[in-house]
Amino acid sequence: xxxxxxxxxxxxxxxxxxxxxxxxxxxxxxxxxxxxxxxxxxxxxxxxxxxxxxxxxxxxxxxxxxxxxxxx
Length: 72
Prior knowledge:
Elements: H1 17-26, H2 35-42, H3 46-58
């Protein structure tokens, strides 16, 4: 990311798949954490969390904020 005048360049943390999974579990509805809370707690940007959620959805993994549908 390019830093404009007066803005700090965002550092992207080097996260393992296990760490990403752990962070994503915090965002599951049953845990009740907001993206903004988890981002601040973990030192990860909100856009990164949304990107991870999108990637999980593409892999068909359980995705925070997306309810699992069951067939009757």
